[in-house]
Amino acid sequence: MTSKNTVVRWVTKGGLAVLDQGLTTGSNFLISILLARWLTAEQYGAYAVALAVYLLIIMLYQSLLLEPMAVYGPSAYRDRLRSYFKSLWSLHLAASLLIFSLLVVSAGIAFRVNSASSVGGALAGIALAAPLVLMSWLVKRVFYLQLSPGPPAAAAVVYCGLILAGLVVAHRYSLLSPFSALLLMGIAALGATIPLVLYLMRDLPAAAGAVSLSEAGLRHWGYGRWAVGSSALQWVPNGIFYAIVSTFSGMAEAGQLRALMNFSAPVFQGYAALVSLLLPYAARIHDQQGSAGSGIFSRRVTWLFVSGAIVYWSALLLFREPAFHGLYSGKYSEVAYLLPIVALGSIFWCAFVGPATALRAMDSPASILVATMIAAVASVAVGVPATWAFGIKGALWAITLSQASGFVAIQLLLQKKVQKAAAQAPVLGLGTTFEFPSDISSND
Fold it and tell me: Which residue windows are transmembrane per the record (predicted)?
């Protein structure tokens, strides 16, 4: 009965994590779809280029703050979460100021180069929204460290409601644009996060000891200096192609690329939610069972994620024509035939997540850096000439090749690490299994 109750609690918590990520990023997905329907292809292409910059910022922030937090929060700072969070809040403010300054300068340059383009407005929207959205992610991560995704899921409902209300108002008064859509994301994130901050101020246990800003900063930098490089390189196979496609083929084709990649968003966002919950668990598995346990964890997560992606894409490809018509109101149907290439690249990305999560939990971001470097080199080496010669089709095949290269590389690196650890100090036999920890709280 205890084991059954433990599984039920894990399924419940996993469902809440998916609900949180699904509502939050689903709202952003809705913005992307509505903009694709209501903006011109050139305007939507400008939004896609600016959104790629936004995603790069998120990935770098996650590498320096959120990923180390998921590893060290449930271990080194488990009994000092309040003090730890205060130090991370100071780091967040410093990062936000830097991000805002760089984006404002970039928006000014874009306006000067082409005042008629929507890129400058989109970058200005990101400058205002990014610090608020990143604040929301930081606060939510504290709850995930306590394996308590309930409050973040409730905040996601508030975020979704604010976004939808803002979209209705903006559309009704003809105010919807890349700038206003991104600004709405920031306003909604602020409104949803304030209750979480008040909740933490009241209920987060007092720290057993202080965590200085320098201690937290140095520890995060020690981890993040590797992870930030791998995140930047991981962004290359997808994000850089919006700039490449717009350079060789124009903003309209960049919009077509965004329209195609939108279909991979549900898989990416759903799995990102699960990784937020799985990473602290993977860190615990590695701490208790060593590298062999991490290897078992990686295989199971990989098969689970790949199987789910195959089911999703099989259903979508059967109905891709109605899907394009329903989402985009008849626009972008001319590139619907390219969707199987997007599906193949997405499946390779899903396979990459399992070993990547295990290596992060093993405190081995350098291995991820090597794998993403291989993927980035493959994407640029093939992608630039392929996009020049074949346009958006060449870009999609380059993205798929890079994802496949990254998966093969990271799988080999994980196997090498596990085999080396097993040779030095075997922990688990080949037939050994592990169970979900039963000591998780049932209170969200």
Answer: 44-66, 87-113, 119-139, 151-173, 179-201, 257-281, 301-319, 335-354, 366-388, 394-414
